[in-house]
Design the sequence.
């Protein structure tokens, strides 16, 4: 996967076999719009290159959740990529990240690049998929994220 060989200067992110980066246990500087913007191309590359894996996780989850009943799983890839352009610094400091159908906000906290990218990916996976044209509840989305290799939730 090409995103794993990203060449963003001074940016150290590693992956195992999952789409989520390995969270490094280091401090980082405060999140800024500049740092968010720097991550956007990597985030988009993950979404594009891992689209099949992401879709599969939602499909597998839907099958289990609804005991094999026929569920229409829909992910709008274009919309997901559009939301990547709508990621902003959030003024609130009691959250790490938050999102709605159109945009994503990341807290102005100190975090290293791997956690910043992971947070952006986390929020991108909220509001990206519908089951039978209904949004999925966030706790279900969190289970799907852990299927995709996320270690902790925010
Ligand atoms: Zn979440």
Sequence:
């Amino acid at each position: 996967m090409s995103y794993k060989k990203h060449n963003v200067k001074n940016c150290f992110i590693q992956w195992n076999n999952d789409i989520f980066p390995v969270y490094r246990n280091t401090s980082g500087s405060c999140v800024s719009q500049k740092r968010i913007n720097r991550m956007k191309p990597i985030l988009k590359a993950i979404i594009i290159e891992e689209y099949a894996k992401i879709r599969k996780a939602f499909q597998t989850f839907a099958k289990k959740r609804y005991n094999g009943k026929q569920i229409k799983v829909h992910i709008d890839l274009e919309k997901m990529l559009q939301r990547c352009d709508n990621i902003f610094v959030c003024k609130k400091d009691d959250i790490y990240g938050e999102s709605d159908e159109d945009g994503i906000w990341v807290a102005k906290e100190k975090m290293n690049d791997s956690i910043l990218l992971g947070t952006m990916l986390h929020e991108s996976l909220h509001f990206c998929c519908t089951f039978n044209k209904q949004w999925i509840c966030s706790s279900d989305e969190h289970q799907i994220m852990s299927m995709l290799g996320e270690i902790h939730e925010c």
